[in-house]
Specification:
The protein is of the alpha+beta class. The chain has one domain: Nuclear Transport Factor 2, Chain: A, CATH 3.10.450. The chain has a 6-stranded mixed sheet. The longest helix has 14 residues.
Length: about 130
Amino acid sequence: MSNALLQSYYDAFNRGDAAAMLDLLTDDVMHEPSQGAVRMGKAAFADFLAHMNRCYSEQVIDPVFLTSADGTRGAAEFLLEGRYLETDGDLPPASGQTYRLRVGAFFDIVDGRIARVSNHYNLADWLAQVG
């Protein structure tokens, strides 16, 4: 079930379907971004998704999923292809730059829903690509 759950999560991501992504999360989901503060709860995650969709257009390419035998933890590795649409805070100015990053993500799964999303990528690589 866990691999199917993670596949559904990234299928929704690739469609830009935030509502479908949120439906796969627990109400108290913990989001640990590669940079920045931890976010708690679906409302905070929804705000994050809205911000990301405004600043970036991204697609997950060729995800590979690994899950624990008991189905409570999962991981994904994939390439992320994107376009930088709107300047994000104090990051470099956006002008439609494209980028491609390798990303690792880790998940806790509780009662068939995602309870933690932890994303990791190389920010220096991203900065070099968009700078």
